[in-house]
């Protein structure tokens, strides 16, 4: 998945912060989705590993107020925000790894208030 340089920098800072919380969280094999060698973790273990890391982070004063967000919640937010920004659904499909565009559209293209407002504004602009 393509990500921009700013997100790369933020992920590096997050990894360093995790390391300051616990050296175990900074190990190369502590990535949530895959190791540096590209080994993909069993999806059933991803949520458990995420929960352990999140709870560890919440025990530190610096991150005590971090909200609990699931991996699924992060994925859903990512897709919804991209669609709200007008990113083409095919791009969102590819970023999520869906084999069929209908999966992406059925799950993630629910109409948000932002999308409703944008539709109204675009129609008004066209008709004026």
Structural class: mainly alpha
Q: Could you give a short account of the major beta sheet?
A: none
Oligomer designation: single chain
The overall strand count is 0
Number of helices: 6
Terminal CA distance reads 40 Å
Uncertain residue ranges = none
Percentage of β-strand residues = under 5%
What is the radius of gyration computed over CA atoms, rounded to a whole number of angstroms? Answer: 18 Å
Average pLDDT score: 78
How many discrete structural domains? 2
| Element-by-element helix/strand order | HHHHHH
What is the overall silhouette?
elongated
Fraction of helical residues? 55-70%
Q: What features would you describe in this structure?
A:
The chain is an all-alpha fold and 128 residues long. It has two domains: 5-63, no CATH class; 71-127, no CATH class. The protein has six helices and no strands. The protein has helices spanning 5-21, 43-58, 71-84, 89-96, 101-108, 113-127. The N and C termini lie far apart (40 Å).
Question: Which secondary structure elements does this structure contain, and how are they paired or packed?
Answer:
Blueprint: H1 5-21, H2 43-58, H3 71-84, H4 89-96, H5 101-108, H6 113-127
Helix pairs in contact: 4-5
Task: Describe the structure concisely.
The chain is mostly helical.
Keywords:
2 domains; mainly alpha; 128 residues; 6 helices
């Amino acid at each position: 998945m393509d990500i921009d340089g700013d997100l790369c920098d933020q992920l590096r800072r997050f990894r360093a912060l995790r390391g300051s919380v616990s050296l175990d969280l900074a190990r190369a094999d502590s990535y949530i989705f895959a190791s540096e060698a590209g080994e993909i973790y069993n999806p059933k273990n991803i949520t458990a590993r995420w929960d352990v890391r999140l709870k560890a982070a919440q025990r530190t004063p610096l991150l005590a107020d971090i909200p609990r967000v699931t991996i699924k919640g992060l994925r859903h937010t990512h897709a919804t925000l991209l669609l709200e920004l007008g990113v083409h659904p095919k791009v969102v499909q590819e970023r999520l790894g869906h084999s069929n565009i209908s999966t992406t559209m059925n799950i993630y293209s629910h109409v948000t208030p932002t999308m409703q407002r944008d539709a109204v504004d675009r129609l008004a602009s066209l008709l004026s």
